[in-house]
């Protein structure tokens, strides 16, 4: 299994991680004077750091620097463990509510058959329904580069086929040997 010192190392490491974050607490605050806010939110004014530490100690809470860039820095008397817990809870809630939009790609060819075209359009519509962006690309091979207007026709037909569920975010544009177009899902209001 693990070495007996492993659990000791693990607990020391956990404490190290807690103390090396961006928020300074108690003895880590090195400023001479700070503006102090009480636990209930009332301002106690600007005072020396020793007096602020004494007030925090009397209430058996922590002195936390909440605005280090202010002149003088703002510190609040609070229970730091509870503050960290609530902050983590808020971050978790924000993460849960955010939606990551992926970019899915559909590749066409200049001389694509109707059934293949419909299959690709169906796939793109499926991506758009799930809220993702779709990158549509056509790769020009050989002498196809001489007729980029054929690619524009294919792209506009594809955009028309997907128009019920998506809109053209970036119109078709030739970049090197590829023509690219981006479709975005229509907002479902």
What does this structure look like?
This protein has helices spanning 5-19, 49-58, 80-97, 114-129, 148-161; strands spanning 33-37, 43-48, 62-67, 74-78, 103-108, 133-139, 166-175, 178-185. By secondary structure, the protein is α/β, with parallel strands linked by helices. It folds into two domains: 22-97, Ubiquitin-like (UB roll); 103-185, Translation Initiation Factor IF3, CATH 3.30.110.10. The strands form two sheets. Strands 2-1-4-3 form a four-stranded mixed β-sheet. The longest helix is centred in the middle third of the chain and has 18 residues, at 80-97. It starts with a helix and ends with a strand. The relative contact order is 0.10. The model is unreliable at 10-20 (pLDDT under 50).
The name of the CATH architecture of the largest domain is 2-Layer Sandwich
Count of distinct strands: 8
CATH class designation of the largest domain: Alpha Beta
* Percentage beta strand: 25-35%
**Radius of gyration (Å):** 30 Å
- The CATH topology annotation of the largest domain reads as Translation Initiation Factor IF3
Major sheet: size, sense and barrel closure?
4 strands, mixed
Report the total helices: 5
**Total individual domains:** 2
* Cross-sheet strand order for the largest sheet: 2-1-4-3
User: Distance N terminus to C terminus?
Assistant: 56 Å
Calculate the mean pLDDT score and round it. Answer: 83
